[in-house]
Amino acid sequence: MDFLVVNFAEILFYCLAVLTVAGGIGVLVFKSPVHAALSLLFTFVMVAALFLLLHAELLGAVQVLVYGGGIMVLFLFVIMLVNVKTLAPEQAFLSRLAPLAVVAGVLLGVLIAFALIFGVLVSGHGDGTALRTVGGAEIGNTEAIGAVLYTTYLVPFEIVSVVLLVAMIGAIVFGRRSAGLEIEGGGGES
Amino acid sequence: MIDATHYVVLSLILFCLGLIGVMVRRNFITVLMSLELMFNAVNLNLIAFSFRLSDLAGQVLAIFVITVAAAEAAIGLGLIIALVRLKDTVALDEADVMRG
Fold first, then answer.
1. Beta strands in A10-140 (DSSP E)
2. Which CATH class is domain A1-86?
3. Which of A23-32, A99-108, B6-15, B62-71 has the highest mean pLDDT?
4. If DSSP codes are grouped into helix, strand and coil, which group holds residue A33?
5. What domains, with CATH codes, occur in chain B?
6. Among A2, B13, B15, B33, which one is most buried in terms of CB atoms within 10 A?
7. What is the predicted ipTM?
């Protein structure tokens, strides 16, 4: 029975990995931004499932909520807003920067080879119970992350809130119609 | 259980897919999507090592990465709106005001 459970996790991983990579390739090859966005959403959900396999239950939920919910709605909203269909289609796909893409492909091969050769360094697997234990008491992954986040990583946590505030103000400034962008643009075009 | 190596290789593939997307696509929206793909690869790597080392630091760092990715998406999409207002296009090549 134990053997069956272990095999099930492996089968699940390979299925999810293939689907994740397929979704990532879809983001690259779909011409329509809406199709690419939906492919990206599929990738996000698959990565969330991989997080669950890695005993990161909170991160899996956050992934679905923040990426699948927030960021994806932002992308689709902008795609609808700018009405990409009326804009010129993308003709130069894989043309000018194709050498760079080839370099990236070679880099990918080399990196995978390195990862497989030196994979022995990270091979094996940890104990999932350590990821949901606080002070010797085994509770949940969420509680464990909270206990670490609000003690050891309190300063980065506060700094990230400032980052979010700045990003919010920046997005509002960029999105404003009367931000003087038109004036500068008119000067640049002449 | 799966070796952490498998997850590292998978995140490597995802990261390179995102890198290729950032380099070859001209559509600003698709470039941002490829960037999100790279963020996801980084998160997967962090969580894989968190699992391998039985250390929660990786998961906490992944939460920070997700936060910054959300901020980056908001800024990037605001930039798209500004670019569309200015040039009526989402092609990155058209954003050449500062070209000498």
1. 133-134, 137-138
2. mainly alpha
3. B62-71
4. helix
5. 4-92 (1.10.287.3510)
6. B33
7. 0.92
The answer to whether B52 contacts chain A (CB < 8 Å) is yes
Measured in whole angstroms, the distance separating CA A32 from the mean position of its chain's CA atoms is: 20
pTM over 0.90: no
Return the DSSP state at A140.
Answer: -
pLDDT at A97: 66
Task: Return d(Cα B78, Cα B76) in angstroms, integer.
Answer: 5
- Which pLDDT score, from 0 to 100, does residue A165 have? 94
B10: tokens are: 């998978």
Give contacts of A81 with chain B, Cβ < 8 Å: 81
User: Taking CB atoms and an 8 Å cutoff, what residues of chain A touch B80?
Assistant: 78, 82
CB B59 within 8 A of CB B46: yes
Q: Which helix (H) or strand (E) holds B92?
A: none
In chain A, residues with a C-beta closer than 8 Å to the C-beta of B89 are 87-88
- Give me the pLDDT at residue A188, please: 43
Tell me the residues of chain B between 9 and 38 that have a Cβ less than 8 Å away from chain A. 9-10, 12-14, 16-21, 23-27, 29-30, 32-34, 36-37
Q: Residue type for B49, please? A: F
